[in-house]
Amino acid sequence: MTDRASLLSPTRRRLLRATSAFTALALLATLAGPAATLADDAKKEGGDITFLIDSLGDTWIPNNSAISSFQGHIWGHVADKLVYVDAQGQASPWIAERWEQNATATEFTLHLKQGVTFSDGTPVDATAVIANLDIWSAGRKKEGINPIFLFPKTYERAEAVDAATVKVFFKKPTLGLIPTLGYHGSILISPKTIAQPATEQADLSKSSGSGPYIVESWKEGDHVTLTKRKDYNWGPAAVGHTGPAFLDTITYKLVSEPSLRIASVQSGQADVAYNASPQELSSLKDEGFTVATPRYLGFVNGLAINTKLAPYDDVKVRQALQAGINRQEIIDTVYTPDWKLATSFIQSNVPGATDHSDLLVYNPEKAEKLLDEAGWVKGADGVRTKDGKPLLLTLHSNPYLAASKSIDELISQQLGKIGWKVVIRAYDVVTFGEKVKFGGVAVPAYEVTRSFIDAGTVAGILTNANNGENWFALDERDTVINDLRDKIASADTLDARAPLLDALQKYVLEQGYFIPRTEIVQRIYVQSPALKGEVYNGVAYASYYTATKSEVGQ
Amino acid sequence: MNSAYLTYAGKRLAQAAIVILLAYVFTFVVVSILPGDPITSVLRNPQNGFSEEEIAQIVAAQGLDRPVLEQLWSSLSGFLTGDLGLSMRSHRPVTTMIAEVLPSTLILATSALFLALVLAVVVAYGTQVLPKRYGQGLLRAFPSLFLSVPNFVIGLVLIHLFGFQLGLFRVINPDSAWATFFAAVTLAIPISAQIAEVLIASLDHEADQDYIAVARGRGLRPFRLFTRHLLKPSSLPVVTVIALTIGELLGGSLITETVFGRTGIGSHVQRSVSTQDLPVLQAVVSLAAVVFVLANLIADLVYPLLDPRVKLLGARTPRSPASKPAGASAP
């Protein structure tokens, strides 16, 4: 070997040596890494957890982040909210210790907890709260900072009564304010952060909240590591703990491959895997893993029908659709018993949701009878026709919900039996956004997945009043729904509003405007049995503020 | 000679600049043709519930409703002055985003290239020294085998075997040494196949030459023969292939990085394509163009070192020696 080396010319030999040494060093340097990390993990007292997630969103500008789907996990630990809303939709005090409203629900007074600070040292006082209310409501569009969509559009202004009291004014009655303050978008961010330009806000490490954790490190598209804030003592009373968190750190790590997320939790390399596929859940439960399928407050998953498009302008056809879908079969085939039957078009845990299961019973005979009455005649191929046109339904599978296409395929079979011809179109997110809209020209049914926190906002969305979304393309044609909408909007107490909401749900389902499929579960957690005590809020986000991790199960 | 070389180098540099510029404009055109824009597609998520008017307002505020040529001009003038702009999705400076992930991709790509070279030389050596009947046939099948197994399959098998079964690395810590090593192996296998294929063909050709017969006749041992007489003259086409595989290395790193959960240039490509984040995409494409052009330039400059017959004559350098056998072209 030595004489071989001597045959090479001195310069090339040096080059060769240098290159091999460099490569060997590069490999060795990375080798030293993991051993140290592993040893650290075992020693720490409070424990560290790793949460595997399929996306960390696109931007960390608080208002623009994907707060309803992914980044809400992180914001929920880094920032506090004025109000806490639990899984049953009950609002309770958090940073706002108490609140009052005037008789017409146009003025609200919020009394803030004293001594609360953001992690940059700024106090969470009236000035800070007003800065937040303003940016939620208006954003800074020129800079590319969006408003928070669900923040009431009736907002006028807010003023500081004193350092710990804020008065909020609305142009119209806004019963939804208090629950909306507990929504995932309404996170309190330091006014110093808010004052920063968008590019600075996009750097998560420069954002300060008042939450139980602070950002220790982050890398775009890779991970966010949170570390406990030791002086935190203003947690929401509703979760039964107000002091500092127990776990030392939480790492949200992006792993886009679903099977790797699950396998990592199974092999003990991580503690929580987010968004497992429904089919895997029962075997994971059998293996001893904790499986959580919390429901958020919002609409159920279902179809908003375009009443302008024939034949769905005919109430009998819509009612036949309502009766022709076997919802239990969807749960049995596509989902697991963790999913619940829809009892209205809003989720049953929303305060004000009422049970209208009787309107959602699977009754193919009734559906066939309604179609016969509407003049749709079954042909030799089993497809009904009228004036030479087939009874057609085009479904656009929602790209934001994993099981959507499987459900559409099942519905296609169910409706096929009673004479429908169903066409399924599955688009990617971009094309879906371009082509599929409520009441679109070629969109007889729009598949809804949407959370909200106060049922009072529902009526406005369904119709076209006040920039509403006109889900059923009714415009101003249906006076019943318009009347209910106006009464709900002007209701000044929840008691006065409840019967109106009930009437609205009954009417929308009876008319076949909204065809529920199942109650929606958009967040699925698979968790190591060693991790316990997490709390799920009204938008189905897991908070590990109260969680602890035992040594067993490592 | 010197001025000829300068003219040559100048020409090559000008060519390189044009390639990079064209890549930049081409990316812009392709993304502009696609329907939608990055901001609208986020806002249109039904979870957000923005009205079309609100979306139009926000898009206008971002200047995305301006004429395409105007947008191209402002983006191009930024690029020429070294300003890569802000990502449309994350609102962060593109330069920062690239700088964050570049080391990870560089480590992966260089380790993969090194491993691929070692693997290719070992396989090629085997085909020259092993008995024809037993070892050789098997080794000669290796390149086709390596090429036909998809990259991500190799990656997933390695992860499950060494990550989960043997616990050599934590899958969620993809920058650790073992994880990097296996990611590099995943990336190296198909690349080594191409190098090996060319090297084997070239070695076969050289082995038939008279001087090798003479060397053999002098009683040279196979290893000496291989390292001293065969490898160097056979490596010219290999240099060409390596320069071409740099592109593959970048493309392959996209899949490997995704499978192993590494955050690198590849994951930026994937994300910026799927979200139509034009500034990031343009930066990454330009970076790839720079790397590709540089690699080929270096290859051209290395040829004369390997084979004195290759000379810079002011004109284009021959990319391969005249004696290159027919079978030695890249697959």
From TrEMBL, chain A:
It comes from the Bacteria. It is found in: Periplasm. Pfam families: SBP_bac_5. Residues 1-35 form the signal peptide. GO terms for molecular function: peptide transmembrane transporter activity. Residues 92-454 form the Solute-binding protein family domain. GO terms for cellular component: ATP-binding cassette (ABC) transporter complex; outer membrane-bounded periplasmic space. Keywords: Signal. GO terms for biological process: peptide transport. InterPro entries: Peptide/Ni-bd, SBP_5, SBP_5_dom, TAT_signal. Belongs to the bacterial solute-binding protein 5 family. This is ABC transporter substrate-binding protein. It comes from Ferranicluibacter rubi. The lineage of its organism: Bacteria, Pseudomonadati, Pseudomonadota, Alphaproteobacteria, Hyphomicrobiales.
From TrEMBL, chain B:
Residues 102-303 form the ABC transmembrane type-1 domain. Keywords: Cell membrane, Membrane, Transmembrane, Transmembrane helix, Transport. It is a multi-pass membrane protein. It is found in: Cell membrane. GO terms for cellular component: plasma membrane. It holds the Pfam family BPD_transp_1_N. The keyword Transport applies. SUPFAM superfamilies: MetI-like (SSF161098). The keyword Transport applies. GO terms for biological process: transmembrane transport. Its main location: membrane. The chain crosses the membrane at residues 12-34, 106-126, 138-164, 176-196, 236-260, 280-306. Belongs to the binding-protein-dependent transport system permease family. PANTHER family: DIPEPTIDE TRANSPORT SYSTEM PERMEASE PROTEIN DPPB-RELATED (PTHR43163:SF6). This is ABC transporter permease.
